[in-house]
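Progress report, Aim 2. The chain analyzed during this reporting quarter is listed below.
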Amino acid sequence: MSSYTINGLRLGAAEEDRAIIVPTLSELASKASKQLRYSPYIVRTDIAQFFPSIYTHSMSWAAHGIEKSK
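Predicted structure tokens for the chain:
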């Protein structure tokens, strides 16, 4: 996984109402800020409503290039 990737997915415990827990965008933004604090730019987007029309891997292709994203 890329050092630029912020992933907060985790398996839910038996008492939780979901099998996979997905953090909110604001939680991810906080993690990204800490990890990328010296980066000159941070791109933040929520593509949840556009998933049918965009391939998720195309975001890393656009930001880092196809070869580096593989």
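The two ends are 10 Å apart (CA to CA). DSSP finds three helices and two strands in the chain. These observations will guide the mutagenesis work planned for the next reporting period.
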